[in-house]
Structure formats: C-alpha cells, structure tokens
Amino acid sequence: MTSIKPFQIEDLLELNAVNLDPLTENFNVSFYSQYLIDWPTLFFKSVEIYQDFDQPYEISGYMMGKAEGKLSKLEWHTHITAVTVQDQYRRIGLASYMCLQLEQLTKGDPYNTLFVDLFVKVTNSLARQLYEKLGYSVYRRVVGYYGREQPLDRNNINDDIDAFDMRKRLPRDVDAKTIRDNGDKVYALPMEIVF
Amino acid sequence: MSDSSDADNEIIELIDKGNYQLAQSLISKKIKKFPQKTLYYALNNEILFKRGETEQAIQNNLKLVEKIPNDKLTLSTLFKFFEAVGMERESNLVYENSIKRYPINNESTILEWFEGSISKYNLKSFNKIFVNLHKSAKENRLYTFWLAFSYYLLIVNRNTLKISDKEVELYKSLGLKIIEELHPLVNSQELFVYVSLLKLSNRDDDVTTVLKGRSDLDLELKLIYLVSLESTRQWSTLKEYTSKLLFEEDFNDFDTWKLWINSNNKLKLSSEDLISKINSIKPTRNSTLSLIEIAKAYGDSLNQPIINYYNRYNHKICCFYDLKGYLTDTDTAEFFTLVNNSTSELLSSSPSSVDDLIRLINNQKFNYLLSPNLDVDSYNDKTWKIYDIYKDNESIRGSEFDNNPLSDLVLISIIIDLSQDSSIESIINRITLLQGLLEKDKYNHKLKLWLMKLYCNLNTNDATLKLYQSMNIKMTQHESLSHYLIGLNPSKDNLTELVDIFRFYLTSDREIQSSVFEGFDRGVFTKLESFISFGKRLSNSVSRNLIILNVIRFSVVLGNSNYINYFINLIKYQADTIIQGEIIDNRDIKSEWKFGLVDEKSKNFDTTLLNDPINGDQVNSSLIRLNILKYLIIFESKDTTIQKYLKLYNKLLSSFKPKLAFDGLLLKLNHNILKLFKLKGQLNENEYSSSLNFFLKNFKFDKIKTSLIPKSYLSWELSHNLTNLVELVQIINILLKVVKPSKEIQDIKDCTEHMISDLKKFKFKDLQIQELDEIIISNKLSDLSLQDKGNGTHIKGSIVSSADTLLKIIQNLKVN
Asked: What is the CATH superfamily name and number for domain A1-113?
C-alpha cells in the first residue's frame, strides 16, 4: 500500500532501514539539501502504512532526481541520482514505479525534458534488465565512472569500475535524437559527460 | 559582506587563533588613532570574554550597544558575543537599535542579522527580523513571503513557543493580508505559503477554490488539495480529481485510492461499480488492496478480499505488512485456517523455492499475530524447521548484497527467547547464533544491529565498534545510530573514532544553516519548515551531547590533552543551550525491531529488552546535563559561575533517579569532590566537613564494591562502573593541581591512593574469563562458535581486549 509523499530533510533521521543497504550511498547533508532546494518536486519518497511504534508511516524508498543540461545541445534531461527501496518492499515494482513517477513529473511543464538518464554498473545486469523493461537503453559506456582516479584512456575498459549511461527518451524528443542503438560500444570518459 | 580593512581582519584572525596579547596591542594603537570606531572596543571585549572576564565584557558591550553602532562588523561582533553569553534579547537589540536609528538602506544589514541568527533556529527572532526586512524593502515580493511564512511557522509551533490564541489570530490575518496584496500568485511555492495559511485559518473552502482547475499543482499542493476537498466534503470534485490522478495520470498512490473510494461511497455509488472499475484495469498491489478498502468502507466482510490479496501476494515480503492492519477489523478464523493449511502443505511438499520460503515466513508471522494462545515452543520449533530446510539453499539468495529472508524469521525466534531470558548466558548463546546467520548473510543490517545491541550488554566494546564500522555508517546516520557505541572503553583509538564522528556535526551545522538561508533566498517554502526543524534537532541532541561527553570523559581518563580544550570550550559556548534548552532524542531504536510484529499488544516481545546501556532510561537529558555541568565546573575558574553551576548540579541531582546504584553514588562523590575543591573558600565549616566526611567514608573499595561489581563479571556494567571510577580519580588529579596542600587535601589524596591500590588488586579479567569458560562448558558451546566470523567479532577475544584496555589504564593510575 504505497503512497508517494514529498521528501523532507528530516526524513534522513528515519531512513536507516533504507540507507543501511550496502549499495545505497549516504551523502552529506548539503548534497540532499541542494537537491531539495534546486529540484524540490523531483525528490520524493514512497511510504507504507505501518502499525508498530505508532509511526505515521514507514519509508519504503525514495527517488532523488534532477533536471539539467542545455536544450540547444539536446542535453536538457532528467537525471536519476538515486532510487532505492528498503529490503522488505523489494520485488514489487516500487523502484520502477518511482522512475515512472519521475518521468511523469518531468515530461511535461515546467521541466519538459528530452530524456531521462541514469548510471548503472556494467556488472549490474539485474538493474540493466529492470531499466530495459522500463524502456531505457544504453547510450554509452562511461569508462572508469566508479573508479577512484580520473581515467584518461577511453578504451581502457574495466567492468568493475565502468558504468552504462542509460537513457529513455521522452515525448519532447520526437525524432529520437537523444538515444542510439549499440550504445554499449560507444565509450566516453567521465569528464566528457558533464552537463 | 562587511566593511573591514585588512588590518582589522588581521586582528580578528589573531583573536581567533588565541593570540590575545598581540591582538590587544594592535587594538590599543587603533583606538588611539580612531577613538570613535566602535569595532575596536567590541574586539577588545571579545578578548576579555575569551580570557574568562565575561562579566566585564558584558558590561562594556552593553555600554557599547547604547551608543548604537552602525558599522556591520561591530554589529555582528556584538551580536555573536551576546548570543555566546546567552543574552539573546540583547543580541537582537544590537541590530534593532541600529535599524531604528538608521532606517535608510539597511536591507543588507538586516540580511546579515538574519544570517547570523539562523544557528539558534529561533522562530520568533526570524519573524522579528522579517518584519524589519519587510518594512525596509516593501516592494520586495520575496521578503513579503518570508514574513508571511514566518507567521505560518509561529502558528504551527504555537505550543512550544507559548503563543496565545489572540496572537495566533493576529498572525493568521497578517500573513494572509500581506499575501493577498500580491495576488495573483505566480508559482507553486507562493501558492503553498498562501494555502498553508488558509488551512491554518480553517478556510479549506478557499483552499479548494484557489487550487481547483490548476494544472500546475506539485506534489505538496496536490496533497493539500485532496485533504481540503475531503474536509470540505466536496465529494463530486474529489471523485473527479482522484479518478483523474489514478486512471489518467497513473498516480498509483494508496492514499488517493482511499479518497477515491470514500468519495464514491459518499456519493452513494455502489461498491460493485467500484470493484468493476478496479477489475477493469491492470491489477497492482495498491489496487488489490483497494478492494479490501472498498469492503471496509461499505461495511462488507473483509474476508474474501483479504484472502484474494493473500493468494496473489503471499510470496512477497510486504504481504504480511500490507494485511496486518486489516486483520484486527475482521473475523480471521477462515484466514487463520488458510494460513495454517498453507504452511502444512508447503512443509509436506519439500519446499525449495524462494517464493515458498517467503510464503512460509509470511505464514509464520500471521501465525504469531493471530494465534489466540501462541505456544512459543512449537512456534520456535517450526521456525527452526523452516531454517533447517533452507539453511544450505543458495538459490534463496538474490544478488550478493540482498538480505537473506530466512534471517528475519530466525531473528524473531531469537528475540522471543531473549525476551524470556536476557541473562548474560542467554546473550552469549544468541550472539553465537547471530554470528552464524551473519556468516551467510553478511550485509544484513538487522543482524548487525542486534549483534551490536547484544555485545553492548557485555564488556566487548571492540566487537561493537567493528560491527559499527562494517556497516559503513556515515553522516546523519551517526546521529541516529552512534548510541550503539555508548559502551566503548576509553582508548586512544576509540577517542579518535569519536572525534571523527563528531566532525559530522561541525560540517552539518554549517550545511544546514546555509541551506536554511538558501532555502529562503530561493523561496523554497515547501522544504523550509523541515530544514529549520532538522537544524534544531541536530543542534542539541542526545547523540551529539553523548559524543561530546565521551570525548571529554575519555580524554580525562586517558590524560589525553589533544582534544579536551576544544571540547570544553565548545560546551562552555553552548552551556545555556545544553543545560536549559530542550535536548532532542533522535536515536533510532526502531530499525532493529522492524519485522512487523512489535506492538504493545504483543505478549512475547519485550521491546524494552536489553535497552541498557544504549538507550532508554540509562541515558537521558538529566544525566547529560549533570555530566556537562561536572566538566563545566572542573574547568571553570570564575567563582560566581562555579557557584551557579554547582547550584544547578545540586538541583538536578536531587531529582535524578539513576538506573544503576553505582552511577548514583559516583554522582554524589563527584558533587562532594567538586564542592571541596572548587568552593573551598566559600563553604562554611559544617558544609566542608560534611562533604569531606562523605567522600572519605564512601570512597573505599570495600564500601563501593557491592554496587561496583554487577551480578555478572561479563556485564557491561562492570566496564562502565570501572571507567567512571577511574574518571573520578583523574578528576581528583586535575583538581589537585590547583589547590594548596592542607591536611584535608592530604586526607583526600591518601583515600584516593588506597582506592587505586585496591583497584589494582581487583583481578576482574581473570574472573570474566572464568565466568565465560563456565558458560561455554555448561552450554556446550564449541570454541568455534565463539570465533571470529570474518567481521572482527569474537566474544572471548573482545572481552579480553576490553579488559586489557581497562587494566592498562588502572595499572597506570596514580595520585599526582
């Protein structure tokens, strides 16, 4: 019984069941607050009715998104920074639903972006499949995206630290100019994907 | 931002670095050259304050304020000074007087006033500042909304701010009036402030009028609109709007589903129509649950829709959580039979899939919840039977980082057992079980939280810290979870660890304050209430104060001088807030219990189970204040301040009920020692001898050992008590440095020396090992089950290491 509510900074104090997940990153306060200030409507949470401890509800997951890039360069887009779900509420399509909600929020006014994108580890085939089901495709492989050092050679691929930049075009991109076939064969460096 | 010269900045820098003498000589030269410039007098007083001459600094600065300075740097210096000494009224007067005297072009001064005042999160101050700002820049639309929003904040916090009904009414009308002068509203943030004030004025009809038909409603406004439509009983509009959200905009939101059902019901539409509508769309979890809601709203039996939902989703972990709330509203006999039959069938069919495992887990939870007379033994037997079936089944795991669902099920039985027997022996037994589970489920945070909780109850601080570190706890998580480290023993490494955790607060303080300012500046009103509340919650919290206290305590016990000055200055600066302000508890004591079965009606779980030492009554605001006062007194040199703090200490102590007898005794011993050393010249003969006698009579090993030594040598209480005892000895050492020798002081030294000597003879480590070995033998625990399972935890090793840490400190103890 999921409801969608706006994320508030105090939710960080109620988020352990979600954020103690080893793959979910915990950022400093200013990172979250910057998203809340810059893109207040694109940061929301999913909540469940929960009786224990007289809680008003239990946070089952959240979506942190933003919109950025230049329209003139066909880069004006929605970016999924984080989408995560508590282990008790997984495999019920909640992450997909939140991705669709974000799409819904940005495909029209006031954002009206060209596409949605996100990064997944090259080795995370489960996530890749999930996003492909939602209509995403690989646009490019970002070499060394998760590495500690700034890579210089775009051909030096490494499954452990490379990411796929996956995109889904939105209605504004009528001619499908922001996506491509065989994107996994196109390599880019992290410094080349800054908007 | 301010009109200071390089030379002025150099003086400020010297003061910040503590180079007061050079700063003062430069200030003297400046005063001779520019006798009218108020900044140099303010800086001089700043030095007086930092040198402990607080009273003189206050008097001087009050006179300076009367001169109504206008220079921004003087204003901010005076403002910060009065804030630091707890004179908030005067701090605001610094700016108020200046603005009144110089009413032209003072917008930037008022903005600096606001920026400086954010750290206190004082909503009344914000409002006062915004009133001035609005007056100063009437044409500024954004500032008008700041002021209107500050009225909103005052009203929603009316109880804590003690705002009268009359004031509330005034604020509502003022807030609405200044916004209505700006109509039409141009964006959703402006709409948010306006409709929030309308709602506070119970004008939900107007809220719906304002929001109706708008296509640009963001999530906040959508939710406000929905609630207002319901409260004003506009059922047709609500039905129309919820239908649009659910069926046209794919807003699959359960609260919206409930409103859709409610509005249809109020409009007398039949439940069949609703069911038929739901059945005509692709089923989702929310829509399937809505069928139960329809039955509930129309007074029909919930049985069939519950069973339908169960049949569809019983292989999902959320099934139990989703249905639990409905099971109290219906006759569950049929459902209970269904669940039990399902378990029997599954168990007789050699289950092996993850779906079947999750069915069995959900069934066990339903069984626990619904059994009229739960037979705990047979419940646990069934749990372990399921565990045995699946324990070696690798296919039930998802990806490497997914939790093993089996762990949750077993954890429930382990906690049931612990609720019946939380003896040290039982804890050690359960630690070995949990360690075994963690070996196969190495990222499961619930297992780790429970292991930390159990280790906290033993003298095994190494194990707790290693688990804490293995969870990669960062940033805000320290605020909610660092209480699991409360049992750490003093050591150089642990001290460094705590200081590192404290760095989070230093960073977050600045980050939140700038977020509040930026939030106002960008007009993001939907997030500001929480920003402000978050800042307040973190600025004087239980966890933050516990970290500070433990850093000081470890420094005192270890005789480590690296951090003590910094942290003592910190508590001096925040003394009034900590001692008199609200200490907010953000500790997360819920995450470890999140498996859906903990509520007050439950008979077999004790949620206060093993609450000490990590939370509950053991650590509360009074204990924090008493310890803060203790350190403030030790490191204070002004007699009047010491008297004030001792009076407060005495007052708090008289009403404080310590959880442990030894804590109570130590608080009294500390009190008497502080009086003897810090009030020596001010106590009359009777008071002095009474305090001295109390100390000499009670500070004896034989006298205290019954409360010092808990029932089990393995209990956390032993480390806790020994550390606090050592701290008292070290406090005496610190205080001995500043008193003249006398017969009485010699008596205290002799008594302390005896205590140290007896303490050194106390072979607690041997006694701990002996007790642990007896438990191992009587419980037939193999040495293997106590060994490190790859995450650095090992009961015996941790107990020995913890004891060695304390023994080393005790062996080095002496009277200076």
From this structure: Gcn5-related N-acetyltransferase (GNAT) (3.40.630.30)
